[in-house]
Structures are given as structure tokens and as C-alpha cells.
Amino acid sequence: MYLSIRLFFSLVIFSPYLVFGQQDSTSSGRQKSFIDKQYLKSYLTDSRDIVISPVRWNTYQWIGVAAVVGTTVLLFSQDEEIQKWVQGNRTPALDNVSATIFEPIGSGLYTLPALGILYGCGLIWRNDRAKITALKGVEAYLLAGVASQIIKHLTHRHRPNQDIPPDPGAWEGPFRGFDFTSFPSGHAAAAFAVATVIATSYQQTIWVPILCYSLATGTALSRVYDNNHWASDVVFGAAIGFAIGKLVVRNERRLKVLPVSPAGPGISIVYTF
After folding, report:
1. Could you tell me which of 119, 115, 143, 126 has the C-alpha nearest to residue 212?
2. Where are the domains of the chain?
3. The pTM is what?
């Protein structure tokens, strides 16, 4: 519980640093909240793009997909050995860290309030970057959750804690109720989706991507440590979250009105893709 309280307050402190780390404030006057029809519509358009994205992948993206699939298959062949080794090396201290820090990140217990704090800081300090990042983080979290749930219910893989002895090769196939939802890891997908949105939005501040991806990686590893997932589950889930986070940020549309020159009249309209 002590670790949980410390992490929560760390997230409260962390959000203003993001706001002031990138000076992207609105001008004086009434500011935009960005929770509008366009934002809500982005859930549909981004979902569409996730579904049709394979037809748009270039050579490098296909190579990346092949690498993820290859790594998942390789880990699948070693899932049982990895599970035995991890469970044989558990300690009370690591149990506490996993339960109080990393599991709540993947479940949204820390992640969603942190995004809410970031959005609130953006409102208070009139920072568009913070508000957009928070909203896109929520979107990525939800889309990653939906995507992972769809795959879970198409595969129905047994979790390592559901069989005695654990069987990494137990797959029930599509539409078999709500049991056996190991593949992929939803916690890993959600953690990496949000981490990717924040890390990409603040990539010029080097410690932000390092912190975000470290927490996401810890969340993914904790799922194997807690015996809730196989190693191949978390790798594939992390890849889903990363891809969705990148897509959500890439599809972000922002209209800025900037002065053409500090010394001259006029404005410049910049539409950022």
C-alpha cells in the first residue's frame, strides 16, 4: 500500500513536468477543451485504420510484423521453461512490487487517473500538448483493450494458472465463452499503448520515453511473474499496444494559427499530420 501511495503521488508530480517541459500553450482568452465531435469521431476512424492498416504497411512495417510474429513463435516454444524458471524465482519483495506498482498500471488503476491529471494540468496551464496527449492516451488505452479482447476470444488460450500442470499449448479456438483469455496480454497492450502516446508526444524530452517504456515493460513482465500470462502473450500484447499508440498519434490532426514573422503582420495556418 505504501508503494501504491508513493507511485500515485509521483504521477501527480510527473504531469506538471510534462506540461512545462513543452511550452505549447494556448493564447489568452477562451481555450479549447478538445473533447468535441472530432475527438469522438477519431475513435471510429482510428478503429477503421487499425482494421485496414495491413493493406497500407510498407516493406519496413511488414519486416517489423514478421519480427514480432517470429519472436512470439520462438517464445511460444519456450513458454513452459520460462514459466517454470520465473515461478521458481519469486520473492516477497518482487511480489509486492508487482502487485502495488505494475499490475495497477496495466489495469488502468494508475494510468487513467494519471491521464486525467495530465489533462487537468493542461487546462490549468493552458497547454494544448498536455490535453491532446491525455485524450489520445485514453483513446489508445481503450482501443488496445478492445483489440486484445477480440483476439482473446478468437484464440481462447489457457492461462498458466488455469491448468495443472500448466499447458502452453492449450488453445480452445474462437467463441468459447469467457474463460481462457491468455493471448494476448491486455495489461501489456494497454500499458504500451499509453506509454507510446506519451513517449511519442514528448520524445524530445529524453527521460519521458525512458520512464514510460520502463513502466510498460515492467507491467508486461509482471504478468509473467504473477503467472497470469505466458511470455509469448506479453510480447504480442506489447506489440499491439505499441502499434495502436503509434497509429493514434500519427492520425492526430491539429490546426495551429501562428504568426508568420515576429516582425511582420499576418498569420500562418499549419495543419499537422
Report:
1. 115
2. 2-20+30-272
3. 0.86
